Every structure is written in structure tokens, then in C-alpha cells.
Amino acid sequence: MVHNLNWFEIPAADFTRAKAFYTTILDAPIQDDPNRLYAYLPSDPAKGGFGGAIAYGENFIPSMTGITIYLDGGDNLAVPLSRVEGAGGNIILPKTAIGNNGFIALFIDTEGNKIGFHSMG
């Protein structure tokens, strides 16, 4: 096993709102699945990354409890974090150093999910 994680899904109560939120904070296009309310977040498997999606449906229930997903914060997570509140989210942990492992921050998205950013800078 090369990676422990290879896919994640972020539940949405309002698909359009969630897609707009993540498009704004990631400052990147998000691709719709033509067959369902499901949209693919940007990823680059060729560089060792893995992907994820925004998902809407009866089995996708937003939550602040359970697993926390940390999105790539780029070179400095302060940049995407600065877009969270303007896009309708709420920062619950500002950029915080975690020693040799870089930095993290936590926010609540427009759907009520607790999500994090991680970066080395």
C-alpha cells in the first residue's frame, strides 16, 4: 500500500452552494459529473496526489464530527484560508504551527462540515 488514502467525498446539503464555496476557496475549477450531483475537486495523481469530490444525496450528510479531511493548503495555507469567510464558511482554528509537520487550520464549510487545510508554509 503506497497511500492510506485514495479518495474522499465531502457531503453537501445544497450542491450548488457547496460547489461555489469550494471553487472560491480553492481558486480552481471543479468538474461536474454529468450523471449526478457530484463534482470532482482538482487533483494531480501524476504528482502522487489523490482526489475527492463534493457529493449530494441521501447518503451524504454534512457533519462536524467524525473524520477530518485536510485539503492541500498550497505553499501557504493562509492564502486559501483567507477566502473561507468571504465564501460563507467559518474559521474555527486559524493557521497553527504543528512543528516539523508544517501548519494546519480548520473551518466549517457552507454545508456544516469541519474541514482542514494543511501546508508546510
Description:
By secondary structure, this protein is α/β, with parallel strands linked by helices. The protein has one domain (7-119): 2,3-Dihydroxybiphenyl 1,2-Dioxygenase, domain 1, CATH 3.10.180.10. It is 13% helix and 32% strand. It is built from two helices and eight strands, in the order E-H-E-E-E-E-H-E-E-E. The chain has helices spanning 15-26, 78-81; strands spanning 7-11, 31-32, 38-40, 51-55, 69-72, 90-97, 103-108, 114-119.
E-strand count: 8
Q: Helix content range of the residues, please?
A: 10-25%
| Structure classification | alpha/beta
What is the CATH topology assignment?
2,3-Dihydroxybiphenyl 1,2-Dioxygenase, domain 1
Mean pLDDT score, rounded?
93
Oligomerization = single chain
- Supply Rg: 14 Å
The coarse overall form would be globular
Percent of sequence in beta strands: 25-35%
